[in-house]
Structure formats: structure tokens, C-alpha cells
Amino acid sequence: MRTRENRVDAATAGTDLEHVLLSREQVAARIAELAAELDRDYADKDVLLVGVLKGAVMVMADLSRAMSIPLSMDFMAVSSYGSGTKSSGVVRILKDLDTDISGRHVLVVEDIIDSGLTLSWLLANLSSRGPASVKVCALLRKPDAAKVEVDVAYVGHDIPNEFVVGFGLDFADKYRNLDCVATLAPHVYS
Ligand SMILES: O=P(O)(O)OC[C@H]1O[C@H](OP(=O)(O)OP(=O)(O)O)[C@H](O)[C@@H]1O
Ligand code: HPA
Ligand SMILES: [Mg+2]
User: Hey, what's the signal peptide range on this chain (predicted)?
Assistant: First the structure.
């Protein structure tokens, strides 16, 4: 049987992780704090959470369930990393919103802000659609990796400039289902 204690090992088939930066408990605790803050800030607003697929799927699921105000959800799928560990800088929309966001209060939910290129492009794109407001909530941010400055109202954790996986974050589309945030052992890249 898979227990809490062995879950990381089970999900990674043993030795793929190098270092766990954030445990499942640390992530859950911070998401609960962010949800409480968002509940207060959006108490009198009809908020639309926009999850950026695929990476934001876990944050979106946990954050939205930790919030208690009425809210709506929609998703966009964009990609700039492909199968590598560096942003290509070219953002492609793979799936657009179903919702007309003009006049809406939009909260973009992201797993990570790394170079900032994806978010900077996305904010320009969403702002051109005439929303009442657009803010961002990201679980992780790498301050030392920023190539463009983006205004992020809600940040879970600032982390070092290392490639990380888990909690929605992938390497070559794997490891998204890890319940912690971790770096990968060098042999995984070779
Ligand atoms: O700040 P940046 O350097 O732009 O990196 C952050 C973006 O990169 C990742 O998405 P990716 O393009 O890998 O797609 P995915 O969410 O499907 O993994 C991540 O989910 C963010 O959206
Ligand atoms: O550190 C990262 N890991 C996985 N995907 C990412 N996309 C941007 N940065 C990262
Ligand atoms: Mg990715």
C-alpha cells in the first residue's frame, strides 16, 4: 500500500529526485494562507480564476478548494518550454478561454514565474480584452531568473534559480504528479 511517507519515492520510481525544496505540508500551508488572503480581497467581487495549463492544474485545484467565496474558473493552455528546461521565449496559445472577460475581475493562477516571459505575454494578452482587473497568484517565483519584471500580487514561495518539478511542474511532461517541489538528480537529464 502507498502511504504518505513513501509517496514521493513511489511516484518517482526511487532515485530521480535530488533535493526536496518544499514538502507537501509546506505547499498546503502556504496555499491555505493565500486562499484566506484571496477570500478577503475578493469578498465583494465576482472573481474568475484563470488557470494556466498544464502547470497550474494542481495549484488551481487546491487553491480554489481552499477558498470559500463564490468564484468561477476557466483555463488557458499556453506553452513556451516544450520538452526542455529553458523558455523558448515564444508563447503559443494551445487553448483559449471560453469566457468573455470584459468587465470581469480576473485572477491568473500559475505554478511558477521563472523568466517571467510567459506571464508578461499573458498579461498583455488578457489586458487587451478589457477586464475590470487582472491580478496574478503564483505558487512559486524565481527572483534571480527574471528576464522581465511582472507585477505578481500573490506569491507562494520565492525559490532559488534551479529547475524544479512537482506539484504541476514538469520535466519533459513527467513529474507533475509529485506532491512536493523538488530538483531532479543529474542522471535524469542525461
Ligand atoms: O516565467 P517563464 O520562464 O515563462 O516560465 C513559466 C511558465 O513555464 C511553465 O509552463 P510551460 O510552458 O512549461 O507549459 P506547461 O505549463 O504545460 O508545463 C510554467 O507552467 C509557466 O507557465
Ligand atoms: O523550474 C521549472 N520547472 C518546470 N517547469 C518550468 N517552467 C518554468 N520554470 C520551470
Ligand atoms: Mg512545463
Answer: none
